[in-house]
Design goal:
The structure is a homodimer. Chain A has about 375 residues and is of the alpha/beta class. Chain A is built from ten helices and 16 strands. In chain A, strands 3, 4, 5, 6, 7, 15 and 16 form a seven-stranded mixed β-sheet that branches. A six-stranded parallel β-sheet of chain A has the order 10-9-8-11-12-14, sandwiched between helices. A two-stranded antiparallel sheet of chain A has the order 1-2. Strand 14 of chain A pairs antiparallel with strand 14 of chain B, so a sheet runs across the interface.
C-alpha cells in the first residue's frame, strides 16, 4: 500500500475521537417478492471513502431514476448481474470530482457514470461513462436526452426499428424519458408519430410539448385497439415497445407487412419470481407471421461503443431546438426509493431525477467534519 | 373463339346423348369452426373444362398436402385470401399438360403449380410456377425438396435465421417436409442441428435419415426444457419454428444472445374463429429482451422472385446426395381430405402426397368418354 494511504489511515486513527466524515448510502435490503416497495431499501451511514492511487472521489449531485431498476434488483435472469443485497442501489448519476488521483480527471469535473444511490463514491474510472461539458446544455441533460435514455431512443429506433420516411411509428410510455425522445426522432425522420401514454395530462404533454401527431391515454380508452386504428389510418410500421402487456397486444392487431417491434422495456408485464413462468398473454405468433413482422429485444448496452455518435447527434438536435424534454425532480438522497415507485407507477411527469446535492462546485468538505 | 373450339362444342352437342367428359373436384363446403374435419370438404363432379385461347388443359397427377392449408380454409386474417366456399381446395400440384393453346407449354410438359384438388384444370399460366425437368430427380421432388417446402426451408433458414458456422439450430416438426430440409441445410452450413419431433419413429428418422446431431420426441419428454438443455450444450442460436405453442415456449428458455427465431408455422397453436383473440401463452417479451433476440414472421411467397436461386442450390445438393427426403403417398383424389387430417395430426411419415393419377404421360383421353 502506498505511503500516503497509510499516512491517511494513521491520521484517521490519531483523530479517532473526532466524528468521522460520513457517507450516506441507500442499500438494497431484500429482493422484491411481488412488486417493488420502499422497504426493500435502507439508508445506512458509513465512513466516507478515500480515493487510492489512480482513483477519484466523486460527490454525487443527481440520481437518474429508471424503470430498468426493477430488473436490476430482481434475481431473475437478466442482462446485468443483480444488485447485491447490502450494496448501494445501482444508478446512473451526475457527479462532481472532489479529489483526483487519476490523470484524466480534475476536481470540479462533472461526470456521468454509475456511482449509485450515495453521497460520495470512489471510482477508478471504470464506472464513469463520460465527462459532461456544461456548454452542451443543462447539465442534467446528461442523465436523459444526452444520457442512456437518449442513446436508447436513438439506437433502438434507428438501428432496430429502422423507420422510413412516411411510416407510422407508435411509442408506448410516449411521454417518458425514452419514449418522448423516440417520438421526436421519429418526427425528425419524417414519420407519423403516435404516442400511447397513461393520463390526459401526458396526452397533452405528448401533443403540445413533444409534437406527436396523435396521442392516446390507454387508461381512458374503452377500446384501445379501435382508438389505435383511428390514430393510425395507415396502420403501424414501427412499434417502440416500452411496456409489453395489453397495450402491445392491441398494437399487434394493426401491423403493416414488414413491421418492426422494438422490445425495449416490459413495464406492462407483472413481475415474477425467479424460476416462475412468465405471465401469459395472447400469443403473437400469427400476428407476426401474417405481417411478416419482426419483434426484437433491444439492450442499449450493446450499442455503447457507438454512444458518442448518438450523443453528438442528440446534442446537435437539442441545440437546434428540435428535441424538448421534461424533468421531474425531487430533493434529497432519501427520496430515491419513493421516486422509483413513482416511476414504476407511471406517476412522474418527466424524467425522474433526485437532486442529492447541487451546492456550487468546489473542493470537498474537510474530512474531519461530518455532513449534516 | 377459334374455329376448332366451336367445332369441338359442335361435336359435343352432336354427341349429346353420350356421357359428357367429367372432372372430379373436392370443394370447400364450410369453414372450420374448431378444428379441421373431413366433412368440410365435398367431392363434386362437373364437366371437364375446355381450354380457351392462350390456355392449357392440365391433368393433375399429384397433390401436395401442407399444414398451411389449415390457414387457407380459415376466414381469419391471413397472407392469402381464403379459399372460397364452393371452390376446389387450393393445393400445390404436379400436373401434365394435356392440351395447349399457350405458346410456352406443349402436351406432355410436367408443371408445378396451383391447380387444386381436382382431376383436370384449365390455366392461362398464372397459376403455373414452373415446368419440371425429370432430369432434376424424381418428379415428385418438385412438390417438396425442389418445391415450396425446399424454398421455404432455404430462405427461412438462410435469410431470416442467418445461421453461422458452429451455431446451434433447433427445428420443430423436424422430420416434416420443411423441417427435414432445414436440418440438413443447417448441417451443410456447419451448424449443430437439433430436431424436435412427435414420435420415437420420427426421432429415429431425424437421426438416421436426415442426420440431425440430436433429436427429441416432445410427446415423450416429461421436461422438454431440460431435454433441450441437454441436447443444446451451447444453447440455441437459431430456432426454426414450425409450431409455436408449448414447444416454442421451451425453446425460448435457452436462447443465446442475439438468437434468431424464424416463425414459419403455428401448428402448435389451436385454431380460433375470426375476430376471436389468439390463444394465450407465456409472454415472450422478457426472453427476447434479455437475449436481445429476434422473432420474425416468414412467408415464402415474399421470396418467390428468387425461387430459381433456391431451386438451383437445392437440386445441386440433391444430386450430390447431401439432401434426403421421405414421402408418404396415398392414392386417389378422394383421399385428399383424410391426408390433410393426417398431416395436421402429425401422423404422416414423410412429405404427404396424393397420387391422383400417374398413368403414363400421353394425350388427354377422348372427350366423349367419361372417366371411370
Amino acid at each position: 500500500m502506498p505511503a500516503f494511504c497509510c499516512a491517511s489511515q494513521l491520521f484517521a486513527d490519531i483523530m479517532g475521537s473526532m466524528p468521522a466524515p460520513l457517507n450516506r448510502q441507500i442499500v438494497l435490503k431484500a429482493r422484491p417478492a411481488g412488486g417493488v416497495t420502499a422497504d426493500l431499501f435502507e439508508l445506512v451511514e458509513s465512513p466516507r471513502p478515500v480515493p487510492g492511487p489512480g482513483e477519484v472521489l466523486i460527490r454525487v449531485r443527481y440520481l437518474s431514476i429508471d424503470p430498468a431498476m426493477r430488473g436490476w434488483i430482481s434475481a431473475a435472469a437478466n442482462y446485468s448481474a443483480p444488485v447485491p443485497i447490502g450494496a448501494p442501489m445501482r444508478s446512473f448519476t451526475l457527479g462532481e470530482v472532489a479529489e483526483s488521483n487519476h490523470p484524466n480527471y480534475a476536481p470540479g469535473d462533472l461526470v456521468y457514470g454509475r456511482q449509485g444511490w450515495q453521497d460520495w463514491a470512489v471510482s477508478d474510472g471504470a464506472d464513469i461513462d463520460r465527462k459532461v461539458d456544461p456548454a452542451d446544455g443543462p447539465v442534467t441533460a446528461a442523465l436523459h436526452v444526452l444520457g442512456l435514455n437518449g442513446i436508447t431512443a436513438y439506437f433502438g429506433l434507428l438501428e432496430v426499428g429502422k423507420p422510413k420516411q412516411g411510416e407510422t411509428v407508435v411509442v408506448s410510455t410516449a411521454a417518458g424519458a425514452v419514449g418522448s425522445i423516440v417520438g421526436q426522432i421519429a418526427k425528425i425522420r419524417g414519420c407519423r408519430a403516435v404516442g400511447i401514454t397513461g393520463s390526459a395530462a401526458k396526452v397533452r404533454q405528448c401533443l403540445d410539448e413533444f409534437g406527436y401527431h396523435a396521442a392516446l391515454d390507454y387508461r381512458a380508452e374503452a377500446d384501445l385497439s379501435a382508438a389505435l386504428s383511428a390514430a393510425c389510418p395507415d396502420r403501424i410500421d414501427v412499434y417502440f415497445d416500452n411496456t409489453g402487456g395489453p397495450i402491445s397486444d392491441a398494437v399487434l392487431e394493426h401491423l403493416n407487412p414488414g413491421a418492426r417491434i422494438v422490445i425495449c422495456g416490459t413495464m406492462g408485464i407483472p413481475d415474477v419470481g425467479p424460476g416462475e413462468p412468465p405471465p401469459v398473454g395472447p400469443r403473437p405468433n400469427r400476428a407476426l407471421l401474417v405481417a411478416r413482422a419482426r419483434m426484437q429485444g433491444f439492450l442499449v448496452l450493446d450499442h455503447m461503443p457507438r454512444a458518442g455518435e448518438a450523443v453528438a447527434k442528440l446534442s446537435h438536435w437539442l441545440r437546434e431546438g428540435r428535441l424538448r424534454f421534461a424533468e421531474d425532480i425531487v430533493d434529497g438522497l432519501e427520496a430515491a426509493p419513493a421516486a422509483l415507485l413513482r416511476v414504476l407507477a407511471g406517476a412522474n411527469t418527466g424524467k425522474m431525477l433526485v437532486r442529492v446535492d447541487d451546492t456550487p462546485a468546489g473542493p470537498a468538505p474537510p474530512r474531519a467534519v461530518s455532513r449534516k
